[in-house]
Amino acid sequence: MKKQWLIAGLLIALDQLVKIFIWNFALEKRLIFIPNVMRFEPFQNTNLNWFASMANIVMPIFFMVVFQLSAAIAVTLFYRYQRYTSEKTNLWLSLGFCMALAGIGCSFLDVVLWGGSLDYIGLFDWYIFDMKDVFLNAGWISILIWFNSKAYKSRKNESISFKTWMSNGCKLS
C-alpha cells in the first residue's frame, strides 16, 4: 500500500507544480488547442466544488475540508477492505485508489492553499477543469471497471462483512 500512497503523492505534487507554474507564468494566457473543443484558459474557481460551481454558490471552507478528509478516509477504507477480500492486488483497484486519493488530496490543497481550484483546461463551452478532475474521474472509472472484473467476482473473503472487518481492526490479510 506504500507504493499507492507514493504514487498518489507524486500525482498531487505534479498537479500543484503545474498550478504554481500557471499562476506565475501563464495566468493571463489563452490558447486554443482544438477550435471549439479544447483550450487553455486559467480560471480561479472559488466555489470549491463542482456542484457548488454549477449552482453558483460558495461553499464554506470548513465544510469542504471535513468533506475531503472524510472522503480520503472512506476511499482508504474501501481500498483496504477490497484488498482484504481479494486474492491478489488488482491493477484497476490500485489505480482507482491512487487516482481517487490524488484527486481528493489535490482538492484539499486547492481549498487550503489556493482558496479554490485553479482550473485551466476548457472543454467545449461546458466547463473548465484541471488535473485534479481528471484524477477523480479516472479513479471512479477504474473502480467501476474493478467491480466488473474477474478479480472482484472471485474474492476469497467476501463472506466477511465490512462491519466485521472494521471491528477486527481493518487488517489487510
TrEMBL record:
It comes from the Bacteria. Keywords: Membrane, Transmembrane, Transmembrane helix. InterPro entries: Peptidase_A8. The keyword Lipoprotein does not apply. The keyword Transmembrane helix applies. Pfam families: Peptidase_A8 (PF01252). The chain crosses the membrane at residues 5-26, 57-79, 91-114, 126-147. Coiled coil: none annotated. This is Peptidase A8. It comes from Paenibacillus segetis.
